């Protein structure tokens, strides 16, 4: 396992971040398209509402900017160069919502035009580079920068740490996406159909080189540009997009912060469930019922038992080879799914139709 | 323009690392060159060039899905052959097409798949030194990955080579992509070239004023300053573009003018690709 991880770690890591078609199963791709929908809808809705404002050319130019900086070779300490994504920089300056739209746009052009990153895996790429990277970078930057002056050193450090963490977590997500493929999608004889490595190989192979090289490039670029703007163009760091998130949403987040902090702790504690002997009361399968002395299992019960094969049966992924990790991963997936459903429901219930552009009403 | 920047004459016989700015310039000019070449092929007469962009987009997705769903190596190979056949009938130079597709993504997939050859347990095909054993499921997995990646990239590259970019964008409307995004994408595409040129000019002027070698820390600082200047420029330009849009009578919501018309050959081609894709999914299930 270690050999494969080390071998894969030495490959140019930036190519991994743009997942091409063929590495992920169509089911995974579809799941990420669904996961991305609320983010895109949010972005488009805010674009439509502000149609007569400056947002359209702004988004276009920043998407182009994001595309162009993805091509820069950033020299990293140690003598090598790496490509940055730029998602952290846009998030720090204009907020994560706009960064999601801009990075998605740049990725559309990259995948359609250069064949860099797949079309079916577009959703997964947008999730890693357009959601995970900018949101994490932004919140870390905000947490470190706080209410300091716009020229404060803390902002430079905040953007560096935010950029590094954002891209490292994004590479972890990509590692998970690759790693679940062999367990879930294989031929009858067990030959993997898509990305062939289990989580134990794919996660270190993705995270180690990113943490050491690509994330450092992202951190350096974000921090040095923020420092440059502090000297030359302070107005850019005080863009209105900053307020979009730091207003009501941040207040709401602050109120709920305690719960959010508690959640990872609970997730890490989930393997405690493994200590409990036996199965939960009343959740017995047909064979357990027989073991418990039941002489007869109803036919309907037995036939319906195999109706639904859960993708992560018993909260475990055999490919992981570690049931504790499987438990934690199941908890993360479960919490993420519940949060997504809750968000979708609240968005749908509280959605208001986009107001018509004022110019149109006049004509 | 910064294309075709000459390599500096080597002052010593020792091979030197390429100049930092030069590496960046080469990357930017590659992007421009690639796009110019694609536009030229898209204007040639050929099978795909003569079809409606919407049909091409939808059939590309059908082929991608078929490639993604297929569980048989023979079917994947056949689908790759279909893309070669389409390239040939669209007057795309085959050597160029194969090179463009295989460098770099499928070759990279091949390297990624190397450990899988030995890692996945199964009947041994070949025993190598160092205790490595090439297994048949390992080989199958590696071939799955490489063939799937190569066929997918081929399908997308074909679409891009044979369709002017503007038409690809307009065709996105069939997939229910909102007009506002189509407009933004169109603008993004144009500004990419503007920013590529700006960045290229900036790097070239930096390079021409740089004597000797920069330390990596200086290289980083200069790159960041360039990036920051580019960002400031983009922000400023967006304001100017907005004013220009207003002055030309921007009225609220943008609309995309669509002049597509489906003809018999479009329907025929669509039906043919549907049949091929459905057949591939059926045979490779």
Task: Give a written overview of the molecule.
The complex is a heterodimer of chains A (363) and B (285). By secondary structure, chain A is an all-alpha fold. Chain A has 2 domains: 12-242, Arp2/3 complex 21 kDa subunit ARPC3, CATH 1.10.1760; 256-275 and 311-363, no CATH class. Chain A is 67% helix and 2% strand. Chain A has helices spanning 2-9, 14-17, 26-49, 55-69, 87-94, 96-113, 122-145, 153-179, 181-184, 199-232, 234-237, 241-246, 248-269, 286-291, 299-305, 323-350, 358-362; strands at 73-76, 80-83. The N and C termini of chain A lie far apart (67 Å). Chain B has 285 residues and is mostly helical. Chain B folds into 2 domains: 20-27 and 178-247, no CATH class; 44-163 and 261-283, no CATH class. Chain B is flat. Classes of the chains: A mainly alpha (363), B mainly alpha (285). At the A-B interface, helix 1, helix 3, helix 4, strand 1 and helix 6 of A face helix 1, helix 2, helix 5, helix 6 and helix 8 of B.
Set down the secondary structure blueprint.
The complex is a heterodimer of chains A (363) and B (285).
Chain A: H1 2-9, H2 14-17, H3 26-49, H4 55-69, E1 73-76, E2 80-83, H5 87-94, H6 96-113, H7 122-145, H8 153-179, H9 181-184, H10 199-232, H11 234-237, H12 241-246, H13 248-269, H14 286-291, H15 299-305, H16 323-350, H17 358-362
Chain B: H1 20-42, H2 53-69, H3 73-89, H4 94-102, H5 105-119, E1 124-127, E2 133-135, H6 136-162, H7 165-171, H8 179-208, H9 216-247, H10 264-283
Antiparallel strand pairs in B: 1-2
Helix pairs in contact in B: 1-8, 2-6, 2-7, 2-10, 3-6, 4-6, 5-6, 8-9
């Amino acid at each position: 396992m270690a050999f494969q991880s080390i071998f894969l770690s030495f490959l140019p890591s930036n190519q991994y971040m743009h997942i091409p078609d063929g590495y992920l199963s169509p089911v995974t791709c579809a799941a990420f398209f669904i996961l991305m929908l609320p983010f895109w809808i949010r972005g488009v809705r805010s674009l439509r509402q502000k149609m007569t404002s400056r947002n359209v050319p702004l988004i276009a130019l920043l998407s182009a900017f994001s595309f162009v900086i993805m091509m820069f070779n950033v020299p990293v300490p140690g003598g090598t160069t790496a490509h940055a994504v730029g998602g952290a920089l846009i998030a720090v300056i204009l907020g994560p919502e706009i960064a999601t739209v801009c990075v998605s746009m740049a990725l559309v052009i990259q995948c359609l035009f250069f064949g860099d990153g797949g079309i079916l895996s577009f959703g997964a790429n947008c999730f890693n580079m357009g959601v995970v990277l900018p949101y994490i970078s932004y919140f870390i930057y905000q947490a470190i920068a706080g209410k300091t002056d716009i020229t404060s050193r803390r902002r430079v450090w905040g953007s560096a740490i935010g950029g590094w963490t954002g891209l490292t977590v994004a590479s972890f997500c990509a590692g998970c996406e690759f790693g679940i493929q062999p367990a879930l999608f294989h031929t009858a004889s067990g030959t993997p159909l898509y990305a062939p490595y289990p989580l134990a190989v794919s996660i270190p192979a993705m995270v180690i080189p990113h943490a050491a090289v690509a994330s450092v490039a992202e951190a350096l670029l974000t921090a040095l540009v923020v420092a440059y703007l502090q000297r030359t163009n302070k107005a850019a760091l005080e863009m209105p997009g900053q307020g979009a998130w730091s207003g009501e949403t941040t207040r709401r987040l602050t109120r709920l912060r305690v719960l959010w902090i508690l959640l990872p702790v609970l997730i890490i504690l989930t393997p405690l469930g493994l200590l409990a002997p036996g199965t939960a009361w009343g959740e017995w399968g047909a064979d357990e019922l027989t073991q418990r002395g039941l002489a007869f299992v109803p036919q309907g019960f037995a036939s319906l038992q195999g109706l639904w094969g859960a993708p992560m049966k018993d909260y475990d992924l055999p490919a992981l080879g570690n049931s504790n990790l499987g438990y934690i991963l199941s908890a993360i997936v479960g919490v993420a799914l519940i949060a997504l459903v809750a968000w979708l429901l609240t968005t749908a219930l509280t959605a208001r139709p986009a107001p018509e552009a004022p110019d149109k009403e006049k004509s | 323009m910064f294309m075709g920047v000459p390599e500096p004459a080597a002052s010593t016989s020792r091979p030197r690392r390429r100049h930092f700015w030069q590496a960046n310039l080469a990357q930017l000019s590659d992007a421009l060159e690639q796009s110019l070449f694609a536009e030229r092929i898209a204007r040639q007469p050929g099978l795909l060039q003569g079809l409606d962009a919407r049909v091409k987009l939808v059939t590309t997705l059908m082929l991608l899905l078929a490639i993604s769903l297929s569980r048989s190596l023979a079917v994947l190979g056949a689908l790759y052959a279909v893309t070669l056949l389409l390239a040939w009938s669209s007057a795309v130079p085959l050597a160029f097409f194969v090179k463009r597709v295989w460098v770099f993504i499928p070759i990279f997939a091949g390297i990624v798949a190397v450990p899988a050859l030995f890692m996945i347990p199964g009947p041994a095909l070949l025993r190598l030194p160092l205790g490595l054993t090439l297994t048949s499921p390992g080989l199958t997995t590696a071939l799955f990955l490489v063939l799937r990646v190569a066929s997918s990239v081929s399908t997308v590259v074909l679409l891009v080579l044979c369709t002017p970019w503007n038409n690809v964008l307009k065709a996105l409307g069939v997939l229910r992509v909102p007009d506002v995004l189509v407009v933004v994408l169109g603008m993004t595409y144009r500004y990419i070239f503007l920013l590529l040129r700006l960045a290229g000019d900036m790097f070239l002027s930096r390079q021409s004023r740089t004597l000797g070698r920069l330390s990596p820390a200086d290289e980083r600082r200069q790159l960041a300053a360039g990036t920051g200047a580019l960002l400031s420029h983009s922000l400023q330009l967006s304001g100017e573009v907005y004013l220009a849009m207003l002055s030309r009578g921007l009225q609220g919501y943008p609309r995309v003018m669509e002049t597509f018309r489906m003809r018999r050959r479009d329907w025929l081609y669509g039906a043919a690709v549907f049949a091929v894709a459905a057949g591939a999914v059926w045979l490779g299930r």
